[in-house]
Amino acid sequence: MNKKNLFLVVGILLISIILSLFIFKDKIASIIDDHRVVLEVNGEQVTKREYKIRFNALKENAIQFSSRTDILDQVFNGKTYRELLKDELFTILTEELLCLQEARKRNINLTKQEEEEIKKYIQELKANEEMRGYFNQYLRKIDSDENHFYRDLYKTRLINKLYSSITSKTTVSDSEIVNYYNTNKNQFKKRKIIDIFLKVENEEEDARKREIANKIVSELKKGENFEKLVKKYSEDDSASTTKGIIDYFRKGEKEAEYGSVFEEEVFKLAVGQISNVIKTVKGYHIVKVLDEKYMPLDEVKEEIQSKLMKQKKDEAFRLYIENLKKLSKINVYKDRTKDL
């Protein structure tokens, strides 16, 4: 090859390289940006790519939970929810790295069986076409993949094992259980009520049923017998056998059936008192509290023990993590996530 042809080939190659760099410059810049370090904990780094995936997951959960696509732009205590989420994520990732470092120091690992359980869980998510579609759509939304999802589950299981190791000696005494019971007795209160229910199946009949409900309240205020009005008005399918009576229940036990608003109103009333009209997703209710009683300690002892045990373990683990933070070198680069 003569010099002229050689220069021509080299020139073409250089032009090709320059054109490639120009065409893919945004992609290259994105790759470089993804590899920027946004957090360092004792020398271990979190890249912007990792941070972005986790932020996308938090963002997606916030939108789904609130049913608001604009939730990230809402302001709480002078900060947008987006900024609050980003701050919270730095805390989560810092504590996560500290936990994983401690797990390594303590030689805490997952068994083969535990690893297989994670794989099985992912396979179950993909077991049918509909679930597989939701799973893949979720991964695309957060810009992740199945391998990354597996690693996140792996880390969670590992941290749970560390939690168990740190809190294994936690105990709850009988005196703590008795004290909790005596100072939180309202949690163990049960109410027995009688209910007049008007079913609302569509918007068209809502106004009419509301009018009937208001009429019933007026009749009750004039001294009309509640049981008589149950028989006359209530549209509960079981009213003919129960006579509108809902037997003793705790706060929380009827939430799935009637909703939280119903329970809130019921537990505000005194024994013998009649409510105003209560609107629920199923229709309208007017209730009267017939009686109340408190569950005995023996009946709720295990429940209280479990609750106190969790509280004490969570607090012990929190203090452990806070101590690790004090002993660690932590660098946070918030400015590198401002475009998220």
Automatic annotation (TrEMBL):
<dbReference type="Pfam" id="PF13616">
    <property type="entry name" value="Rotamase_3"/>
</dbReference>
<feature type="domain" description="PpiC">
    <location>
        <begin position="188"/>
        <end position="291"/>
    </location>
</feature>
<dbReference type="Pfam" id="PF13624">
    <property type="entry name" value="SurA_N_3"/>
</dbReference>
<keyword id="KW-0175">Coiled coil</keyword>
<dbReference type="InterPro" id="IPR000297">
    <property type="entry name" value="PPIase_PpiC"/>
</dbReference>
<dbReference type="InterPro" id="IPR027304">
    <property type="entry name" value="Trigger_fact/SurA_dom_sf"/>
</dbReference>
<keyword id="KW-0413">Isomerase</keyword>
<feature type="transmembrane region" description="Helical">
    <location>
        <begin position="6"/>
        <end position="24"/>
    </location>
</feature>
<keyword id="KW-0472">Membrane</keyword>
<keyword id="KW-0812">Transmembrane</keyword>
<protein>
    <submittedName>
        <fullName>Foldase protein PrsA</fullName>
    </submittedName>
</protein>
<keyword id="KW-1133">Transmembrane helix</keyword>
<dbReference type="InterPro" id="IPR046357">
    <property type="entry name" value="PPIase_dom_sf"/>
</dbReference>
<dbReference type="InterPro" id="IPR050245">
    <property type="entry name" value="PrsA_foldase"/>
</dbReference>
<feature type="coiled-coil region">
    <location>
        <begin position="100"/>
        <end position="131"/>
    </location>
</feature>
<keyword id="KW-0697">Rotamase</keyword>
